Amino acid sequence: MMSQSRKAVYPFSVETAMQYFTDADYTRTKYAALGAEDVNLKPVEKSGSTVIVSNERSVPVEVPSFAKKFISPMSKVSQKDTYETSGQGYQGNWRIDMKGAPVVASGKISLMPTADGKGCEHEVSADIDVSVPLVGKKIAAALIGDTLDAIEAELAYNKANIPA
Predict the structure, then answer these.
(1) Scanning 79, 98, 138, 157, which has the fewest C-beta atoms within 10 Å of its C-beta?
(2) How many CA atoms lie within 13 A of 69 on its CB side?
(3) Number of C-alpha atoms within 13 angstroms, CB side, residue 133?
(4) Is 122 exposed, middle or buried (0-12, 13-18, 19+ CB in 10 A)?
(5) Quick one: CA torsion of 75, 7, 83, 27, rounded to 10 degrees?
(6) 8 Å CB contact between 90 and 83
(7) 4-161 architecture in CATH?
(8) Residue 156: phi, psi to the nearest 5?
(9) Which tens digits make up the pLDDT trace of 10-59?
(10) Which domain of life is it from (predicted)?
């Protein structure tokens, strides 16, 4: 399946964005506002030019009827975002594993200053891999829209809730 992406331009700096992206209270509040339950944050790992942000949470999933035997409508997920410094910003990858289901969502992250230097651009790409014979691609196609909607909601939440 081809990767798809969503982008937001924020009126605040890359440094401000990372300050909030690595803040436990902000992250817990954000995911709760977006419908997650049982948000469990792991300590942020910083090593050289690498920043790793990990969490586990239960999230609502729009599950097509034919996929309900593989995926729960409230699914426990484990997410890991890995950022590497790149020029004045960050490039990286994210991955979400759905516990007890053959589903992995993953993609690339870019957080870079805008050309005018007055904000930053946050782009997130997504792809879904479902390892179920015969119907895996059909399930992935059904889940990619939900995943892109979740990315858009997270970008909008950041834009509305991180002060410039």
Answers:
(1) 138
(2) 4
(3) 0
(4) buried
(5) -50
(6) yes
(7) 2-Layer Sandwich (3.30)
(8) -65, -40
(9) 999 999 999 999 999 999 999 999 999 999 999 999 999 999 999 999 99
(10) Bacteria
